[in-house]
Design a protein that fits this description.
about 240 residues; alpha+beta; Glutaredoxin; 2 domains; 4-stranded mixed sheet; two-stranded antiparallel ribbon; 10 helices
Length: about 240
């Protein structure tokens, strides 16, 4: 009988210890590949706490803003022309970012790593001159590079950028990038590192195993893991 009760207690603690590990917050990032503030965010904030600490607890939705004009063609569809502040290279950069989203679909971590790398190696040289990085810096193999090179020349990426930009316009917001929505609430970054960290911590305050990280203390997640391991060992002993 004692063994049965101990097994029940073990199961309850196991559920409590692991239930919060899958909790995530949702962040939408609206940006452009050569917008200077967007690059500043991607090159700095994404390499600092809390992003590095919380990354696996975030669902990122990356949306490219690429202004366009449309005109009907003889086939009854539309032809689109993009115009970014930094010219054709910024448009091409947006296409690479959008194609990466397609390639790394279901692989959020790999998409974030590519986006970080591509942004880090993008240089805005003047108002209309952008130097994009070699794909070899940010991709692992020839299949990835070939996919991206083919994708940026296709129609699908054009439609994707148009849809993304069209949806952003429906929000009717001031286009001062980068624009972030944290759990549906807009946050204007504007280089405010400390405020962004504070905002992140406030939004994850309901996730028990992350609140202590926000306070700079030892995370409850480690306590949960230690408790889980202890209970597993205890259960093993009791099973004999």
């Amino acid at each position: 009988m004692l063994k049965m009760y101990l097994n029940i207690i073990f199961f309850v603690i196991l559920v409590i210890s692991t239930s919060s590990l899958g909790d995530k917050i949702n962040i939408t990032l609206i940006y452009s590949s050569a917008d200077e503030q967007s690059l500043n965010f991607l090159k700095t904030e994404w390499t600092l706490k809390p992003i590095d600490v919380f990354e696996k607890y975030i669902n990122w939705d990356l949306e490219l803003y690429t202004p366009y004009t449309a005109k009907p063609n003889e086939n009854g569809s539309r032809d689109y022309s993009f115009k970014c502040d930094h010219g054709e290279q910024e448009v091409l950069g947006n296409k690479y970012h959008e194609c990466a989203k397609k390639y790394y679909f279901y692989k959020n971590d790999e998409l974030i790593n590519f986006t970080k790398c591509y942004a880090k190696n993008t240089a805005v040289l003047s108002a209309d001159t952008v130097k994009l990085p070699d794909l070899g810096l940010c991709t692992n193999d020839d299949n990835q590079r070939n996919y991206l090179k083919t994708c940026v020349e296709g129609r699908d990426v054009i439609n994707s950028l148009v849809n993304s930009t069209s949806n952003i316009k429906k929000l009717k917001i001031e286009m001062k990038m980068p624009i972030l929505f944290v759990n549906g609430k807009r946050f204007d970054w504007n280089g405010k590192f400390n405020e962004f960290e504070k905002n992140m911590c406030q939004n994850i305050s309901s996730i028990n195993n992350l609140t202590d990280i926000c306070n700079g203390a030892i995370s409850n997640i480690f306590i949960n893991i230690a408790l889980l391991l202890s209970m597993l060992m205890f259960h093993k002993v009791m099973s004999y």
